[in-house]
Design a protein that fits this description.
heterodimer; A: 662 residues; seven-stranded parallel sheet; seven-stranded mixed sheet; B: alpha+beta; 3 helices
């Protein structure tokens, strides 16, 4: 977070922005369902904070190495843990030996400390990760309060059971939190009825019904289509992007050509050393140079830098580095699919990542030179315009496999190489801080922003907050260049990569119009998803009868429109609420998806003191009689001051498709 | 002997404002399937009583099926594992 908040326009040095206009989220309570918290981290100091908000009704519970009286304060106002569901499932106690876990809110893993400090940590100056990314870390809402619900445990890298998650929802709703942040996804493979099984959809439905904004990660199964999780329409689902920061690492060859790789390498320069690519004789000479099955011995590698190629991600880099280090090598260059998430190799061993193009050029240099040599220099930090933000390779993509008409993810936020507080037991930590990547890291950025919006607009519903965030998002970098999505190959990002775009908190604070919703509005979704009247009535607590003809899921008042099966013509409706100046006139600007024509009726909306809400209809016509993949466009309402952009995704399906086309 | 696993019995919006009454109704419901209040207490993992109504308990598949057929039950959801992302 030493860069992410500046990238998002929430610099603490700027006197006028959403950070300051919201008193930094003071009075708002963010509940974090995660691996707990390391309360001694400076990010959780309560210095300068006023009394605990009066609407807080929760508790702070003592446990192993966690004392409620001393570890909770005016920043960490609540802390509890829920493990019975996991223990009952495993049928045996958790292994808590060797500080691997604590039966208390204390965080052994570090993930929960990282996410909590990103959402609402206070300012901690002069932080870096091994000298890289130097600056001030803080949360999006530095004066918001934290309620910690430890539901994930240090078992197989961090697991959580839905029974425990649901209990945390139950308590958090009672406790009076304003925002809930869940950097949690389901295990792979996905259940087809994930909405039912994961508990998050169920718990969040009741939380949202009580005015609590629920922010969840989209999961890390990208860049493949239909992998987005936490896809219920009442959830704010977050994709991960990079930001305008990179860690270039010079690789200088003996022919004086210098390439830039990426690494977290802060050791000494590795002066010119022999460079090898482990090639064997025979029909498959490249087999020995595959990073994850690197075949080298001491005589071959000692004192040398090794080049290898891989189609895998993090695991291959680390395993190859171990092999080369063990054999006495002095460095590793890994050619792989470009992705910006970086981790240091063990003991500061230099492992530099390059893309296949640079890797191939280095390989050609090796093959064409009698004694190839290379110099590896330490990584540097660069920020600002030369670096463009992209949707992260790992970030799960839409369309939504449960309800394709509900656009997911909703929004993207920085989630690559995020420097924040962690547990001292985190294996990647440096002085209590770590750089981590994942939709887990993007999620608390949006939770912090939601807290700022809640502080500025206490009467806004979760749907209004979500609408403000989605309709004001950026599709371009600050330099004006469009946001790309990592993948193979890279492409321009579309709504299935980043929903509305990358979050733009300053415009989200004053969106002009919002697509608001209440519990009743979600009933159409529940009816469309085959819940029967009795079930919906019990769920909502009100007698409900689904319309006999079946409601159109397209009419749910979301800030996005997705038509997964346009035949000839479809008409849907939306209602906007004016949250700006009373007397406003908005005009529609239509960007039709390729192969469609789109009209909006009326195309001018006139608001005054009495008219706060207006309904419009959108008609989309297919121009061609063919089955297509998705095409993207938008409908934007503008009054000259505000720009309220609704992403529009359309797939024409004239006949039943024989293959999925996303 | 049939294996027991944790299931979530989801009952929707709360029927009582008093959480104690809600929890008691959960124990009664569970007892009606497993035979006694004592056994129900042993099998109960959580009572969800504030934000919504429901409970988590250890069931065999046949018990889960019986619970699903009780009036007031919206769904019986098998417990599942999630991962940090």
């Amino acid at each position: 977070t030493t860069r992410s908040w500046d990238f998002l326009g929430l610099s603490a040095h700027s006197p006028v922005n959403t950070l300051h206009n919201s008193s930094m989220g003071d009075g708002v309570i963010i509940g974090v369902l995660d691996t707990g918290i390391w309360p001694e981290a400076k990010s959780f100091s309560d210095k300068g904070l006023g009394p605990i908000p009066s609407h807080w009704k929760g508790v702070c519970e003592s446990g192993k190495r966690f004392k409620a009286k001393s570890h909770c304060n005016r920043k960490i106002i609540g802390a509890r843990w829920f493990v019975e569901g996991l223990v009952a499932e495993y049928g045996q106690p958790l292994n808590i030996s060797g500080n691997r876990e604590f039966f208390s809110p204390r965080d052994a893993n570090g993930h929960g400390t990282h996410t909590a400090s990103t959402a609402a940590g206070t300012f901690v100056h002069n932080v870096s990760y091994r000298g890289l990314g130097h600056g001030t870390i803080r949360g999006g809402a530095p004066r918001a309060r934290l309620a910690i619900y430890k539901v994930c445990w240090n078992v197989l890298g961090g697991q959580c059971s839905s029974a425990d998650i649901l209990k945390a929802f139950d308590e958090a709703i009672h406790d009076g939190v304003d925002v809930l942040s869940l950097s949690i996804g389901s295990s792979i493979p996905l259940f087809s009825d994930i909405d039912e099984r994961n508990g998050i959809a169920t718990g969040s439905f009741h939380a949202v019904a009580k005015g609590i904004t629920v922010v969840c990660g989209a999961a890390n199964d990208g860049p493949f289509a239909q992998t987005v999780q936490n896809s219920a329409p009442w959830i704010l689902t977050v994709a991960a992007s990079s930001m305008d920061r990179a860690f270039p690492t010079p690789i200088t060859l003996g022919n004086n050509k210098t390439f830039l790789g990426q690494a977290i390498y802060t050791g000494k320069e590795i002066g010119f050393s022999s460079l090898i690519y482990p090639e064997t004789k025979g029909l498959n000479p490249n087999s020995a140079g595959v990073c994850q099955s690197l075949s080298v011995d001491n005589s071959m590698v000692a004192g040398k830098v090794v080049l290898c190629f891989t189609t895998m991600n993090l695991g291959a880099v680390r395993s190859a580095a171990e092999v080369v280090k063990e054999a006495g090598g002095v460095g590793l260059i890994v050619a792989k699919n470009p992705s910006e998430a970086l981790y240091p190799c063990t003991d500061g061993f230099p492992c530099v990542e390059v893309d296949y193009e640079i890797g191939t050029r280095i390989l050609f240099y090796i093959r064409s030179t009698r004694s190839p040599v290379v110099k590896l220099s330490p990584s540097k930090t660069i920020v600002g315009e030369p670096v463009l933000a992209k949707v992260a390779h790992f970030s799960s993509r839409g369309p939504n496999s449960i309800a394709p008409a509900i656009l997911k993810p909703d929004i993207a936020a920085p989630g690559v190489n995020i420097l924040a507080a962690t547990s001292p037991l985190d294996r990647f930590q440096d002085g209590g801080y770590a750089m981590h990547s994942g939709t887990s890291m993007a999620t608390p950025h949006v939770s912090g922003i939601a807290a700022l919006l809640k502080a500025m607009h206490p009467d806004w519903s979760p749907a209004a907050i979500k609408s403000a965030i989605v309709t004001t998002a950026w599709r371009n970098n600050p330099s004006g260049f469009p946001v790309f999505a990592e993948g193979s190959p890279q492409k321009l990002a579309d709504p299935f990569d980043y929903g509305g775009g990358i979050t733009n908190p300053n415009d989200a604070a004053q969106p002009g119009l919002v697509y608001d919703m209440a519990t009743d509005d979600y009933v159409n979704y529940l009816c469309a998803m085959d819940y029967n009247n009795t079930a919906i009535s019990r769920l909502t607590g009100n007698p409900t009868v689904c319309p006999t003809e079946g409601p159109s899921i397209l009419n749910i008042n979301l800030p996005s429109i997705t038509i997964p099966n346009l035949r000839n013509s479809t008409t849907l409706t939306r209602t906007v609420t004016n949250v700006g100046a009373s007397n406003s006139i908005y005009r529609a600007v239509i960007e039709p998806p390729f192969g469609t024509s789109v009209s909006v009726e009326p195309n001018v909306l006139v608001f005054d003191r009495k008219t706060k809400k207006l309904t419009f209809s959108v008609t989309v016509n297919a121009a061609h009689q063919v089955n297509t993949g998705y095409f993207f466009g938008s409908i934007t309402w503008t009054d000259g001051v505000h720009t309220v952009r609704t992403p529009l995704s359309v797939r024409t399906e004239i006949s039943q498709p024989y293959i999925d086309e996303n | 002997e049939a294996t027991s696993n944790v299931h979530i019995v989801y009952l929707g919006e709360r029927q009582h404002d008093d959480p104690m009454l809600t929890t008691n109704s959960h124990h009664d419901m569970l007892a009606s399937v497993v035979g006694s209040k004592e056994i129900a207490s042993e099998l109960m993992v959580y009572s969800y009583k504030h934000g919504f109504s429901g409970f988590a308990a250890k069931f065999t598949e046949s018990q889960a099926q019986k619970v699903a057929e009780l009036p007031g039950v919206v769904r019986v959801i098998p417990n599942s594992l999630h991962r940090i992302q």
